[in-house]
Amino acid sequence: MNRPAPLEIVVAGGGTAGWMAAAVLSRFVGEAASITLVESDAIGTVGVGEATIPQIHNLIIGLGIDQAEFMRATNASFKLGIEFAGWLKPGESYIHSFGYVGRGVGLIPFRQLWLRGRSLGVAGDYGEYSYNVAAARAGRFAKGANGPNQPELAYAYHFDATLLAKLLRGYAEERGVVRVEGMIEQVERDPASGNINALKLNGDRHVAGQLFIDCTGFRSLLLGDTLGVPFEDWTHWLPCDTAVAVPSDGGGQFRPYTQSLARPAGWQWRIPLQHRTGNGHVFCSQFMSVDEASTLLLANLEGEALADPRPIRFTTGHRREFWSHNCVALGLAAGFMEPLESTSIHLVQSALDRLLKLLPNDLTDLSTARAMFNRLSNGEWARIRDFLILHYVANAREGEPFWDHCRAIEIPETLAEKMALFAESGLLVREEDELFLDDSWGQVMIGQGLEPRNYSPLADNVPGEDIGPFLASLAKSTKTRAQAIPTHRDFINQMLGCAGEVTQ
Ligand code: FAD
Question: Pick from 213, 377, 402, 501: most CB atoms within 10 A?
Fold first, then answer.
């Protein structure tokens, strides 16, 4: 029953994905494996990827990293959600916040009570009922509930991607991961099984293994190049294909949320960190050049640019299989969806979680584990894809060629079904293990101007005259609670014991 010798795992690539894999595997497979990570200093990493979603806590807690230590090491700030400004039309903005909006009554979702309130003319803006939105708008943050039976803020982080990789590298190396610096020049395969046997590095070095984790970024050297797993291109659904990124010093507000500002051919992100702001402009090259996109980005920074804008080209989509033969791809080597909802690092994390759950003791037949891994991964990616498409198709920016193009996109059936149910009476149902919950879908659908024709009959169970006072008291208490907590800056200063250091 026991393994005769430690499992030899080779991680190819040392960006965020590679070091996350090395850290997680060294923590959880531990003594049962020997782990080698190969990376090339000459190639470097993509160096972006600074906004996350709350599931990141599972990684940090799972690795046993102290929160303050994590924030100090990565210059992190807190994130309560994402502001989408101008996505419906210029001048309009909403926040897709983490956590719940409002409070349902029994099994009647809050969204339905709000829709009924709207039909009665007594409902305010949907965001008024979200503690996360109220705190974000007020620039405030706190952990824990500020009263009995009160909700807590749901949060994630913004962090410096390079510092994160450094932190994870230190963690993994302390737990025995061996780092080999070198250029992978060839990948050797077993002629009979097609499995990967070893990586051939410059200087005639070989790194042999039994299980290979491809984290070589967009190159996808192992899964794509070597094993020939085709790429499924989703550009027809998500047409943006380029980003320009530039850090700036911390002018502007120190917001506890990401900003996503709609632009004529895409959108701009602002991600506040303790020491600087991360900025980028994601756009569709059919509608705008890199020079135009860079100029627009530089004109809309809140502080001084700290470098020249760096273009990054990408194709949205993923490898048809995420695990082929004895190789699992993570991160950009597996595929990419634009950072609109900060899902890429999460996809690395959830793939690692899935791999740990499916890692067999006997590697001679991986076919069942592999099939399940691929089925679940495909489902997860498709649901996130649908959520991203929703932001683009439901826009009212008429007369702008890129946005007109987006409105005309023929959407996947799965999204069409979801939108049709919502259009009927605001119905939302979470499918399988999909990442985004009903509250996320609801906030974006409402924020993007989708108007349900009716509300669910469930909402008629609350007497009509109670709806207005219920909504009014909820909005008031939400706002009052948000005003009573510290500013984002004060909270971080206090937490890290560095009063005065965060000056934005
Ligand atoms: P990389 O960082 O490219 O690392 C690849 C590694 O492979 C490097 O170490 C390189 O040296 C090595 N390598 C490659 N070829 C060889 C070779 N021949 N020999 C040896 N080594 C080799 N994600 C989020 O979650 N939130 C965000 O806000 C976010 N924003 C993004 C914005 C943009 C514009 C882009 C493009 C991505 C963003 N992402 C974001 C995604 C995130 O950056 C990536 O998921 C994450 O950084 C993982 O990258 P990676 O490790 O797969 O690849």
Answer: 213
CA torsion sign for 17, 20, 25, 31 is: positive
- The total of other beta-carbon atoms located within 10 Å of residue 333's CB is 30
The alpha carbon of residue 53 and the mean position of all alpha carbons in its chain are separated, in whole angstroms, by: 6
Point out the residues of the chain with pLDDT beneath 70: 1-4, 146, 498-504
Of the candidates 74, 48, 70, 72, the residue with the CA atom closest to the CA atom of residue 57: 70
pLDDT tens profile 368-392: 999 999 999 999 999 999 999 999 9
352 burial type by CB count under 10 A (0-12 exposed, 13-18 middle, 19+ buried): buried
Residues ≥6 apart with Cβ < 8 Å to 212: 9, 10, 11, 12, 196, 199, 222, 326, 327, 328
Q: Give, for ligand 1, the residue of 260, 322, 332 to mutate: max count of ligand atoms closer than 8 Å to Cβ.
A: 332
Minimal CA–CA distance to 440: which of 117, 210, 98?
98
Chain-wide mean pLDDT for the chain?
Answer: 95
Class of domain 7-77+159-236+317-383: alpha beta
Which is the closest atom of ligand 1 to the Cα of 332? Answer: 52
Tokens representing 259 are: 């900003």
> Assign residue 417 a region: left if phi > 0, alpha if psi is -120 to 50, beta otherwise?
alpha
Backbone torsion region of residue 170, taken as left when φ is above 0, otherwise alpha when ψ lies between -120 and 50, otherwise beta: alpha
Number of other residues whose CB lies within 10 A of the CB of residue 302: 17
Q: Give the nearest ligand 1 atom to 245 CA.
A: 34
| Torsional sign, CA 129, 132, 135, 141 | positive
Q: What is the dihedral of CA 305, 307, 311, 312, to 10 degrees?
A: -100
The DSSP output letter for 183 is -
* Distance between Cα 159 and ligand 1 center (Å): 15
Domain boundaries, the chain: 7-77+159-236+317-383, 101-140+412-504, 242-313
Give the residue whose CA is nearest to atom 14 of ligand 1.
216
**DSSP codes of every residue in 445-468:** HHHTT---SS--GGGGGS-HHHHH
* Interstrand relation of 33-39 and 178-181 (parallel, antiparallel or unpaired): parallel
Closest CA to 471 of 459, 453, 482: 459
464-483 and 110-119 helices, crossing angle to 10°: 120
Q: By three-state DSSP, how is residue 105 classified?
A: strand
- Tens digits of residue pLDDT in 436-474: 999 999 999 999 999 899 999 999 999 999 999 999 999
Q: Give backbone dihedrals phi and psi of 28, rounded to 5 degrees, phi first.
A: -105, -25
Q: Is 89 a catalytic residue?
A: no
